[in-house]
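Data deposition worksheet. Section B asks for the primary sequence of the deposited chain exactly as it was used as input, without tags or linkers unless they were present during the calculation. Section C holds the resulting structure in C-alpha cell form. Section D is free text for depositor observations; keep each observation to a single sentence. Incomplete worksheets are returned to the depositor.
Section A, Depositor: J.P.
Section B:
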Amino acid sequence: MGLIRTIKKVAPGGLEKGEEEGQELQKKKLVLSLISQLGMSDEQASEVAQVSLSFVKEIRAELKGNK
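Section C:
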C-alpha cells in the first residue's frame, strides 16, 4: 500500500487540511512582506494578495503586537 493511501486511511481529511494550512501560511507570509517590506496599505495588500481586508488587518495587528 502506498504512503498516500496509508495516510488517507489513518487520517481522513488530513492531507486536505495540511494543504489548506500551507496555503494559509503562504498568504500570511505574502501579506507580511507587502506590509513590512513594501509599506502597502491594508487595501493594497488585500488586493495584491487576493485575500480579505479583515485577513490583512489581522496580520497587521499581529505585526504591531510583535514589535
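Section D:
The radius of gyration is 16 Å.
The mean pLDDT is 86.
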